[in-house]
Amino acid sequence: MKVAVVTPRYGEHILGGAETMARRFGEELARRGHVVHAYTTGATNHGDLRNDLPAGVATINGVRVERFGLLPIGNRLSHDALLQRILWGVRTTVHEQFAWIGAGAHSPGMYAALESQSPHYDLALLIPYPFPLIHYAAACTRCPAVIWPCLHDEGYAYTEPVRMLLATSAGVQLNSLPEREFMEQRLRVHHPRAHVVGYGVDPVRADAAAFRAKFGIADPFVLYSGRIEVPKNVNVLVDFFKRHKIDHPGPLKLVLMGAGTGVDTDHPDVITLGFQTGADKQNAYAAATLLCQPSINESFSIVIMESWQAEVPVLVHAQCAVTRHHVERSNGGLIFATYADFSQALRTLTVNSELARAMGARGRDYVAREYNWNTVLAKFERAAEDWIGAGMIAARAT
Amino acid sequence: MHAQRELMAVMGKQYSESGVSPQDGAEHLGATGDSPNEIMTRVAARMAERQAAWSTTLDEAQGSAAQFGVAEFPAQPKDSGNAELHRHLREVNAEFADLHNEPILAESPATRVPVLGKIWASVRQHAHELVLFYVNRGTFHQLSVNRRLVSVVNLLTAQLEEQRAEIAQLRRDLARHDDADKRRSP
Fold it and tell me: Labelling A311: which of A92, A142, A175, B102 has CA 20 to 30 A away?
């Protein structure tokens, strides 16, 4: 099979769940014998797409990666004002929503390439949904265009351009059952070829002692890994942790691993490590007492899977259907909605190490059973047969 | 070639470090001979066509999305005894997320003064944006609170209607039993 992966940001040092998924999924497909070409841009920053990397072609881990230039956003102020209204769920007209898509960061070089080259692919996988570039790329793709949206319950998702993108695609690739329920029940998009494929999680080979020695952290700690931003609810985690430390003084630390702005992390027991990759990142999982994923906007959550791979339990927010779903199915952690839940969970998992270990082990088994690459790619190949067959009919009709 | 140069200028980066050719990023433009503007115009037109086709199917097949962050708005039962409650509920669901926070910058005699007028207009625009930055923080928090309140009212109304229907059914059952008792008694 010949697959085009279309995503605004691509590379080993790009931070972001969807971007990591696009890259690793492409690499594993290539390893399985499929031909995978990635169409991307030079952007590296999530919030501000611009030409950070040069255009050109390179092969990265078996995937041919072609980067294209981005046009700058025309009227930044009005674009950002409209984006803010959409994100906050302020009522916007359909015209405004499409205008926002039109005014975003676009890549004419990529669009021209997709117009001319996409007929040579069996399917194109476009990920993730919130970027205007993905909407335009879907309109330029002349093979079955499958949207891998990584949907979040946020203002963007409810807009008509997003519903159109999903409903008019050849297929939809979803990460989890709750994501499908969200698409159908809240967005009211019922796609006959929406398939829950999931994502394969790489084995973690972790060394807790190495992490503690390198970063000088001897105390037990709660780990957060990801973007340190308000939309990820990290402010709630930090606030709850500070309150917990007042109520239950002790050596427990909160370690934040990742990058971002807008969260006040100034506290003697809050340690920020910055963006870590490779062994350091994996070792951090193993050294943690637990991993907290406070985000209520996840379509999969790689970090909780990686934590479970290291046999460490997780604490997730009750308002996130996806992470709650994983925890309920695996019994690999606890769920919090309020400060009282959060504090009690920290007490339980720090005091009862046997329970914490058992939860970590159940999480590890769950990941090994559900989210290994063989299982996930086999699901993808079955779904692809459906998309390729039906997608050409849809493409002709539009 | 002009089109390629235009795109290269947009890319605005050095290519030599990665060992790739600048041509790689623009070869497709060269193939069609279209400028970035021409490509964007073409794709935007295609998007407009898709949008038009989509809007005709909205009412038929796909309906519309729920409101972001709001619990389901309950439909008014045919036999609802409280039409006023449902009228207010419809209105609050329709209006709570309306927010008019665009800066209003109408021309004035001062902005029409040559040279200085433009500077004054620019200062005024920045002042408006600064005010809006602070106002929006409070407004968006209030919007979030309103969203929760509307959700609570929607859920309570749905529950109210469910219980009202259940009470009505129980009353009917009771009346039926009463009638049966009366018929049995001499």
Answer: A175
Tens-place pLDDT, residues A177-211: 999 999 999 999 999 999 999 999 988 888 999 99
Q: What is the pLDDT of residues B128-173, one digit of tens each?
A: 888 888 888 888 889 989 999 999 999 999 999 999 999 999 999 9
Distance CA A143, CA A125 (A): 10
Judge: A67–B8 Cβ closer than 8 Å, yes or no.
Answer: no
The nearest CA of chain B is from the CA of A319 a distance in Å of 11
**Phi-psi region at B107: left, alpha or beta (left = phi > 0; alpha = psi -120 to 50):** beta
Choose the mutation target among B2, B4, B39 for the interface with A, i.e. most A CBs under 10 Å.
B39
Q: How far is CA A252 from CA A221, A237, B134, B162, in A?
A: 5, 14, 37, 48
A386: tokens are 């459906």
Q: Are strands A221-225 and A2-6 parallel, antiparallel or unpaired?
A: unpaired
pTM of the predicted model over 0.90 = no
Nearest to B10 among A69, A158, A185 (CB): A69
Query: Hey, what amino acid is at B95?
Result: E
